[in-house]
Amino acid sequence: MSYVAVGGVQTWYAEHGTGDPLLLLHGGFTDASEFGATAPSLAEHFHVFTPERCGHGHTPDVPGPISYDLMAADTAAFLDQLKIGRSRLPHQGPRPHLHASPEGLTSISTSRSLTSIR
Asked: Based on C-alpha coordinates, what's the Rg of the chain?
């Protein structure tokens, strides 16, 4: 478990395994422990990253509202800070889609698929 500065916030994350990067983003009102049962199996095939978003788990809250645009920008900054480059991102159920942005994130359009971002 480590911390990295993302947008001026010390963001907690865990990483496991080797291989192509796989970024797991938790939902609202939870934290990276949401992936405790699945991360070990995924780590047999991927280099799994599980960052905790602002105000969740070990990552402190920030003043002001948290928006989908801010979360997408934080995700891009996380990838940049760790020099991850392209990553796979599974989309689960009703979670918000990441939108296209100048930083290179692409929208996620299919449920339970692995879609590349960056």
From this structure: 13
| CA nearest neighbour of 33 among 67, 70, 1, 81 | 1
> CB–CB of 74/23 below 8 Å?
no
Measure the CA–CA gap between 66 and 45, rounded to whole angstroms: 32
Q: What's the average model confidence in pLDDT over 77-92?
A: 86
What is each CA distance from 62 to 5, 17, 105, in whole angstroms?
A: 13, 31, 23
pTM flag (> 0.85): no
Considering the domain delimited by 2-117, tell me its CATH architecture: 3-Layer(aba) Sandwich (3.40)
What is the spatial distance between Cα 116 and Cα 96, in angstroms, rounded to a whole number?
16
Q: What is the pLDDT of residue 113?
A: 40
